[in-house]
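Me: I keep going back and forth on a fold encoding question. No explanation is needed for now; the record alone will do.

Assistant:
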Amino acid sequence: MQNRLLRDTAESAGGESLALAIERVALGGTIVVFGSDSGELTLLVCQFVPGHKG
């Protein structure tokens, strides 16, 4: 995948694949997660969520 931002994506592998999708989602974009086929955990640290009010 090139270094471009994703607008909308569906992700079912989890692990590193989900982490990469999170890094590449554009502001206002959507990631739909519907599984974890890889069996890997995804570390998600939410210190700041751009575009979220409240």
